Automatic annotation (TrEMBL):
Biological source species: Comamonas koreensis
High-level lineage: Bacteria, Pseudomonadati, Pseudomonadota, Betaproteobacteria, Burkholderiales
Ranges of residues in domain ShlB POTRA: 167-221
Residues annotated as signal peptide: 1-29
Record's keyword terms, sorted: Cell outer membrane, Membrane, Signal, Transmembrane, Transmembrane beta strand
Gene3D superfamilies the UniProt entry points to: membrane protein fhac, membrane protein fhac: a member of the omp85/tpsb transporter family
The name this protein goes by in its record: ShlB/FhaC/HecB family hemolysin secretion/activation protein
Length: 568
């Protein structure tokens, strides 16, 4: 893409242009009005999208079990007094677990059995107790494990309850034994393990990370006592899915019109891996990126890489050319999950290298390495109007002097940006129905650092993924938050055929502070839009009005954002 634009009046004017460019870039380095590589957000967006997709995978409704457990007693916290009994009763002073007793914690077992101590128990009471223990096993995910009472002498006042673990007798994938490397990597369990629903749900989520997959599970009784056959059935789609897109969300300096092209590949290497390759281009920018993720039971290992270039004419004589390379390696570990929530740990190591030139005069290249450790959680909930969810993602990042990264000078001015920085970031989102056909969506993104940051590490406001009435990356800072709000009309009737649309209104705001000059700046905007989906096409049209612009920034008014994507 690199163009050596004709510079008028070479010699003295070209020298002045070079000096002008250096002065502008130097001022930007002080973070008063940070200049950002137009494609700098590619790596960050890919990382955030991957974390969100892993978090939002939902195996609910994809697991069926041939035999369902008997419904337990409604009240599991009190002694079932008053139930009709037949036969003898025995005074029970102690209740103990035998067999696979580790499936339930001692605390959970004691909580269930405590109401039955020091009571005369008949067979009917013991059956209620067994129902409650089985309920606890099911809630813990051991859906095929059972508790029972064997023959014993209760005259001593001791009741022994035997817990028998249900085990996986065989694992089948599309009618054949699941022996492929990809299946082995995706599943956190194997034949002979105790059957735990959470393990099967995780396997389903790992399989369905691939857009080509639509895996469902059937748990069937096996041939052995307590054994089950876990059968995965996949309605597989094409190995490659392509997408083309166009939007007007580029910067005014490098071209608002952008084109995008990409391909998603699934399991082409037989590792149940997901591969994404893409290109984004505008008049004065190009960027290519790639993402590959491989499952490993409760872990997902991912690598993201991007290369981008841009050029920008400052004034009439200074041509700035920039190029950056980004690479990130991350590990996502699922820490806990239940029917309604997931909690995961995310660790990522990123490396960024950038070079810039002004009129072919090379500036000092920059190299930065950072480590981020974060925890994220998703919780789904039900309301009288429908289902909703909230998410939270909190992370700590540290710039490290490794892998060839630049090191901060000992005499670095206090207001200068740091390579070895520390920062905290957080994001909270809420999605819930507020009326029969209205959905409220909100997201807050926050950042805090006590040190000046380079633009690649700052929080930016502006653009369709931020404050929607402003240009992309309009405002940046080392501290602050961005708040997006949206009220959408859901469950609308088709426009024609299978075409669906979702009209919405939005109100977004941000307040950001740069540490170098201790100044805070804020923006706010509101507007309306509509999303339309028809077969493989998706369009989003927005009209927004900027309500305020900080001093020293170009005044903003009405803004139209439009995008069109086609997948095939």
């Amino acid at each position: 893409m690199r163009n050596n634009l004709p510079l008028p009046a070479l010699g003295k004017h070209a020298l002045l242009g070079t000096v002008l460019g250096l002065v502008c870039l130097s001022a930007a380095a002080q973070n008063n009005n940070p200049v950002r590589d137009p494609n700098d957000q590619l790596l960050r967006e890919q990382q955030e999208r991957l974390r969100q997709e892993l978090l939002e995978q939902n195996a609910a409704g994809k697991i069926q079990q041939d035999s369902q457990p008997t419904a337990p007693a409604a009240d599991d916290s009190a002694f079932p007094a008053g139930i009709p009994t037949t036969g003898p009763s025995f005074d029970i002073r102690h209740i103990q677990a035998t067999g696979d007793s580790s499936l339930l914690s001692a605390r959970a077992f004691d909580r269930i059995t405590q109401p039955f101590l020091n009571h005369a128990l008949a067979v009917e009471h013991i059956n209620v107790l067994l129902d409650r223990i089985n309920k606890a096993l099911i809630q813990a995910g051991y859906t095929t494990s059972r508790a029972y009472v064997g023959g014993q002498n209760l005259k001593e006042g001791v009741l022994s309850i035997t817990i028998v673990a249900g085990r996986i007798e065989a694992i089948v994938f599309n009618g054949a034994p699941a022996t492929s490397v990809g299946a082995w990597l995706a599943m956190p369990m194997q034949e002979g393990d105790v059957l735990r629903l959470r393990d099967i749900e995780q396997a389903v989520d790992q399989f369905n990370r691939l857009r080509r997959n639509n895996v469902q599970v059937l748990i069937k009784p096996g041939q052995t006592n307590g054994g089950s056959i876990v059968e995965f059935v996949n309605k597989e789609g094409p190995a490659a899915r392509y997408n083309l897109g166009i939007d007007n969300q580029g910067s005014s300096n490098t071209g608002r019109a952008r084109i995008q092209a990409g391909v998603d590949l699934g399991n082409v290497l037989g590792l149940m891996e997901s591969i994404t390759l893409g290109l984004t281009s505008s008049k004065e920018t190009n960027a290519i990126y790639g993402l590959v993720s491989v499952p490993w039971g409760y872990n997902t290992v991912s690598a993201v890489a991007s290369i981008s270039e841009y050029q920008n004419l400052i004034g009439d004589t200074a041509l700035v050319y920039g190029r950056s390379k980004n690479f990130s390696l991350s590990l996502n570990r699922l820490l806990a999950r239940d029917q309604n929530s997931k909690t995961a740990l995310d660790i990522s190591l990123s490396k960024r290298e950038s070079t810039r030139e002004v009129n072919n005069f090379a500036l000092t290249p920059q190299a930065q390495t950072s480590l981020r450790v974060g925890v994220n959680r998703l919780t789904r909930f039900d309301t009288a109007l429908g289902a909703g969810q909230w998410t939270v993602d909190v992370g700590f990042s540290r710039g490290l002097p490794i892998l060839g990264a630049d090191k901060d000078a000992d005499d670095l001015p206090k207001e200068a940006a740091r390579y070895q920085f520390s920062k905290l970031d957080a994001a909270v989102s809420l999605d819930r129905p507020v009326a029969e056909r209205l959905v409220y969506r909100s997201r807050i993104s926050a950042l805090w650092s006590h040190q000046p940051l380079y633009s690649s590490e700052q929080l930016f406001a502006g653009g369709v993924s931020s404050v929607r009435a402003y240009p992309e990356s309009f405002l940046g800072g080392d501290q602050g938050l961005v708040w997006r709000n949206e009220l959408a009309l859901a469950k609308t009737q088709p426009l024609w055929g299978s075409a669906r649309y979702e009209p919405y209104v939005f109100a977004d705001a941000a307040i950001l502070r740069t540490v170098s000059d201790k100044r805070s700046r804020s923006i706010a905007g509101l507007g309306a839009g509509a999303r339309i989906a028809y077969q493989g096409a998706f369009a989003d049209l927005q009209l927004g009005r900027a309500l305020r612009s900080p001093d020293g920034y170009e005044k903003q008014g009405w803004r139209v954002n439009a995008s069109l994507t086609y997948q095939f």
